[in-house]
Every structure is written in structure tokens, then in C-alpha cells.
Design a protein that fits this description.
The protein is an alpha/beta fold. The chain is 44% helix and 17% strand. The protein has 10 helices and 10 strands. The strands form 2 sheets. It has an 8-stranded parallel beta sheet. The chain has a two-stranded antiparallel sheet with strand order 9-10. The radius of gyration is 17 Å and the shape is globular. The structure holds zinc ion.
Length: 260
Amino acid sequence: MKRIIDTHAHLDHTKDLARVLDSAAQENVAAILAVSEDLQSSKDNLEIKKKFSNSKIFVACGIHPSKAHLIELDACVNLIRENKNELSAIGEIGLDYWYNWVKKNEDKKEEQRKVFIRLIELAKELNLPAAIHSRGAWEDCFDIADKVGIKNCVFHWYSGPVETLKKIIGKGFFISATPSLEYSPEAQKAIKYAPLENTLIETDSPVFYKTKDAAGGFTAEPKDVWRTLKLYCELKNVDSDFALNKFNENAAHVFKMNCV
Ligand SMILES: [Zn+2]
């Protein structure tokens, strides 16, 4: 029986979670990494892990750059320290300069950097990997991860320039593929360039993805990680079993999700 791992899902934002976890299990999703985006979301994901103990749920706590407020930082650091044995990663953390109101706002960018640096330093201290959101801030994110000297991290849903991607791969860091491979030229370009050895697969569910079929799109669930695998194999022209084995190995390597 083939089994797969979703290395990035927002379970705390998932509607009808019991049903979603059930269909993931039925479709042989062996494990899910639940990533968080702020203090409350981190608490919620820790609760979800306890509540759904039959599902293999791994948890990452952190503050997403779009929610990066210094006011929550100390409490989030404390929560992470108190629960460090429950955690598989720190995330989702990083920087997001995508929108103009951030791009042109030095104070906001500085606040994001302060939050990111504190949390990635904590990841290093606790010997945990980091799940990094880097949209529009790819080079800054790489520089910080490199400077901090984190051992393992993934630049989740990487869609930035190849020059930065070369550095990410050169350091042995990872990027991840999502169902956006169906339509996003930037994601396709990055995934084409990155070796399988440096790639993870995920859904970022419950994100809404466009599709080319009549439905026009769908709200992702962890079971759709199979869709990511299919899109990946078509794009890279690689054997599905071979890629799946490697993705499972990579999830075990980065997040210690040894469950397949
Ligand atoms: Zn995410």
C-alpha cells in the first residue's frame, strides 16, 4: 500500500476537520504537518493533535509574517518552549513583502524581520526545522536562515527567482511543491529547477486552487497531496513510485515524520 505525507496544512482553519482527517486516512495520507500562523493558531493545533490522536498529526508552532506583531512574540516563544517535545518544527514563519502596503512600509518589514529572526533563532536553539513563508522576500529570508545557521528548513511554496533558489539548494535547504503546479509559472519554474533531493510535497490546505477542468478550482484538503504528487511527476517526467519514496524520505529527514 502506497502512503504519502502532507508536510504543510492549516488544520486549525479547516472546516469539518473530522471528516477531512477521515478522508485523508482513507486515501492513505500517513501523516500531516499542521502549521500555525499565530499564538491562538499554535494553541489550536496543539489541541487538534491531542484531540485527533488516531491521526498522525505533527505540529509546527509559529507566527506567520502576515500576522507578525511583536505583541504576541514573547507569549509564542514561551508556548514553543513549554511544548517543545510536542513539536516537529517552528512555522509558519518568515517574511512577506508581496503587497505594496508592506513593500513600501519599512516599519512593517522591520517588525516582520524581528519576529522571524527571534523564531528562527529559537528553532536553531531547540534543534527544530523551520517552515518558511518567503513570498516577495525570498532573498531576505535566505540571508536570515543562512546567517542564523539553521540546519533544516523548507522554503514552502517557493515561487521566487532562480538565483536565490540556487543558494537555498546549495545550503541543503528544501522547497515544496503544492497543487499550484497546475497553473503557476513561478512555482513550475522553481520545481523544475530544484532536485527531488531538495523538495517536499504538501497542500497548504485549505487554500483554494485553480484548475483547468470544468470545476475551475477546489478547496484543498490533505488528501490532495496526491494531486501535488501527480502534477510534480508530470512536470518533472519522473516515476511516481520513485518520487513518492523520495518525498517520504525527505519528510522523515526534515521533520522526522517517520511514518511510512
Ligand atoms: Zn501555509
